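Page 42, continued from yesterday. The earlier attempt failed because a stray header line got pasted into the input along with the sequence. Redoing it now with the clean sequence only.
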Amino acid sequence: MEPQHQTGSAIFIYLAVFVVISLVASLNEFLIGDLAGRSDRARVKSQLTSLKTAFLSYKGHLKNYPFAGKDPFDASAYARVWKHLYTDETNGNILFSTFVPTIDGEQCTLGLTATQYKSRWKGPYLMCETQVDSLVDAWGNPIAYYCLDDGRYLRIFLHSAGEDGKFDMARPELAALTTELENYKVSRFSRMFQLSNQPMLNADSSDYQGDDLRIQIDQIRKPRPT
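This time it went through. Structure tokens are written below.
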């Protein structure tokens, strides 16, 4: 029979080994999760940069970014084409075909005739296995496309709501855009744009600690009032 002190030592060693293994496993799980989160954010940052290039190419050929109606200086006109950026139907997606949507009773030809629009269109502007995948972030949420008017400039953005799927809106005016985007809900998305319950945050500030990712496509000077 083993002495009692040896048995106690063996139990202590087993417990110590168990604790160490548990700690290592927990640490590995934490590190893997952290690395995966960083990888997702890096992927979305790269995705936003690629999307920006696509929209710049679109404007280079058609002289404007996608917008509804006839006034390129109407900030609300940009979010209203959202439905025609995310559809999986090739012939109904303005980034993948010369399709000209009709929104609010008007053809969206960016101030051109339909013939001019189709002749200048040089896409597709995005390359992906399915169209909609180009504008969905790593967490399965659609990336918002919108414009803000600061009085002097129009600023056009692409905006990922991050892992939580809720926008930390950079400006209170964006709350109105949420309703517009919800009007064009796509059935394949289980979650839709939501406002964060926390106070409005500025995603561009140096002390921003939320999970949103946003990139400015362009800044367009507004014409002076006559």
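Notes: The longest helix spans residues 4-62.
Reminder to self: strip header lines before submitting.
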